[in-house]
Amino acid sequence: MLKLEHVTKTFNRGSANEVVLYTDLNVEIQEGEFVTIIGSNGSGKSTFFNVVSGNILQDSGKVFFRDKDVSKIPEHKRSQFIGRVFQDPQKGTAPSLTITQNLAMAYNKGKHFGLTSGVDKELIPLFKEELTKMELGLESKMDVLVGALSGGQRQALSLLMATIVRPDLLLLDEHTAALDPKTSDLIISLTKRLIEEKKMTTIMITHNLKHAITYGDRLLMFHKGQIIMDIGKEEKKTLTVEKLIEKFNSLNMLDALDDELAFSAN
Ligand SMILES: Nc1ncnc2c1ncn2[C@@H]1O[C@H](COP(=O)(O)OP(=O)(O)OP(=O)(O)O)[C@@H](O)[C@H]1O
């Protein structure tokens, strides 16, 4: 459903800050897959999402979505079929609007009245039902300003906003990294439930090796702008943190695991 073909990207070309990131990135994600991505800092994970979502344009190469070349389609148009949740809980939600208003905005995404805070009353039961399913008690806070919520509650809301209209592709960019371990586990199980319920093709970047191994049915590892490991469904079923580290070791790639990733395995 998603294919990147011969993608190249260099930042700040010709300057002292030049970063040659991708020289030939190729990847294909199948309909219905739940792919987890790990990789050291600066290995090109978020840029991958930026290229897929149209937030930045590749220098050359192509992006296909369901066999359609979307390489030149702008981000706001791609957001009609791609949902994205960021690491920062502040990023996905509007703090000065209520939960209901935030959900209405997400529900109306792309429609010309999408940026107003007026709420169609008929939508309220749907929002209430979706919030209740999250089991965080947010259904009793629908008129509370989002700025008053905790980071975990905001991230749960971001997740719901990204999926309230089922996206064809869901991109999760370290969406649990800014949360404490308990809240992070809660958001990740919520994520799993939503993905299964809505049967969404999903790609999740994580610095948490355990999450990367436990969730999803395929694991990609980025290193220096390349995908150096692609572990499929069958192998992933029996994968453990120890086996993964052993694999790195045998490939002489332990340096691809930065401190933060290695730490998350403990
Ligand atoms: N807009 C940009 N302008 C200049 N350089 C950029 C830009 N976006 C990314 N880069 C550079 O490209 C490299 C890859 O960045 P990217 O954010 O994709 O890495 P990452 O794997 O997501 O890292 P992290 O785990 O730290 O988030 C880094 O060296 C980064 O500084």
Automatic annotation (TrEMBL):
InterPro entries: AAA+_ATPase, ABC_transporter-like_ATP-bd, ABC_transporter-like_CS, ABC_transpr_LolD-like, P-loop_NTPase. Coiled coil: none annotated. This is ATP-binding cassette domain-containing protein. One of its GO terms (cellular component) is plasma membrane. GO terms for molecular function: ATP binding; ATP hydrolysis activity; transmembrane transporter activity. Signal peptide: none annotated. Residues 2-249 form the ABC transporter domain. Keywords: ATP-binding, Nucleotide-binding. Transmembrane segments: none annotated.
